[in-house]
Amino acid sequence: MTPRRAFWRGYLDCAPFILIVVPYSMLFGVVARDAGLDVLQTMSMSVLVIAGASQFTAVALLQENAPVFIALFAALAVNLRMAMYSAALVPYVGHARLGTRALMAYLMVDQAFAVAVRTYEDQPEMSPAARVAYYFGCMLLICPIWYGCTLLGALVGQAIPAAFSLDFAVPVCFIAMTAPLLRSAAHVVAALVAAVAALAFAWVPWSLGLIVAATLGILTGAQTELYLRRRAQRATT
C-alpha cells in the first residue's frame, strides 16, 4: 500500500465517526459557553487540548465551583490515556522523525487512535511510511470538524432546542471506540471493573471518582494479563 493510498484510506475509515464528532464538539461549545467561557476561550481550549473528555471534565468542575487546581488535575488525569495511546503506537510509528511524532501527538484523539491501532494490528505488512500516512489521513477528517463544530456550538448553542439532546454523543462516542478494542479477557475485565467502580464512586465530589475508577480498571487489567500469561507459561512447562 502506497502512502498516498494509505492516507485516503485512513480518511475514509474515520468517516463514520463524523456522526458522533459533530454533535460531540457542538455540545462542548454549548457547555463551555454555559460555563461562562467566551468564544475565544472556548476555541482556545479546543485548539490547544483537542481532547473532548478532559475538556468536558474541566468545564464541568469549573461549573461546580471546584478549585482550579482540581479541575486541572482531573483533566490531566483523564488525558493520561493519551500516554497509553502513544505507547501503543510506538511499535508502528515510532520510526518517524521527532517533528512528525510531535505533530502526531498533538493531533491524537480517541477516534483516530482506535481506528489506526486496529488497522496496524490487522495489517502488519503496512510499510512504515504508509502507517504514518494512514494516521494523518484519520486526523485530517476529525480535527477540522472538531474545531469547526466547536465554534458552531459556541456561536449558536443557545438556539439549539433542548429536545435535540446533544449530550447523547458523549457515551455513544466512547462505546463505539471501546467495544471493538475489547479483544482479550484482560481488556474485558478492566472495562467491567472501571464501569462498576465509576458507579460505586459516583458520590465522590468533583467527579474524582472517575479517576479512582480508571486507576482500578488499569490495575485490574494489568494484573489479569499478568495472571493469564503466567498460567500459560505454567501450562507449557
From TrEMBL:
<dbReference type="Pfam" id="PF03591">
    <property type="entry name" value="AzlC"/>
</dbReference>
<feature type="transmembrane region" description="Helical">
    <location>
        <begin position="132"/>
        <end position="153"/>
    </location>
</feature>
<protein>
    <submittedName>
        <fullName>Branched-chain amino acid transporter AzlC</fullName>
    </submittedName>
</protein>
<dbReference type="GO" id="GO:0005886">
    <property type="term" value="C:plasma membrane"/>
</dbReference>
<keyword id="KW-0812">Transmembrane</keyword>
<keyword id="KW-1133">Transmembrane helix</keyword>
<dbReference type="InterPro" id="IPR011606">
    <property type="entry name" value="Brnchd-chn_aa_trnsp_permease"/>
</dbReference>
<feature type="transmembrane region" description="Helical">
    <location>
        <begin position="12"/>
        <end position="31"/>
    </location>
</feature>
<feature type="transmembrane region" description="Helical">
    <location>
        <begin position="43"/>
        <end position="62"/>
    </location>
</feature>
<feature type="transmembrane region" description="Helical">
    <location>
        <begin position="159"/>
        <end position="178"/>
    </location>
</feature>
<keyword id="KW-1003">Cell membrane</keyword>
<dbReference type="GO" id="GO:1903785">
    <property type="term" value="P:L-valine transmembrane transport"/>
</dbReference>
<feature type="transmembrane region" description="Helical">
    <location>
        <begin position="69"/>
        <end position="90"/>
    </location>
</feature>
<keyword id="KW-0472">Membrane</keyword>
<keyword id="KW-0813">Transport</keyword>
<comment type="similarity">
    <text>Belongs to the AzlC family.</text>
</comment>
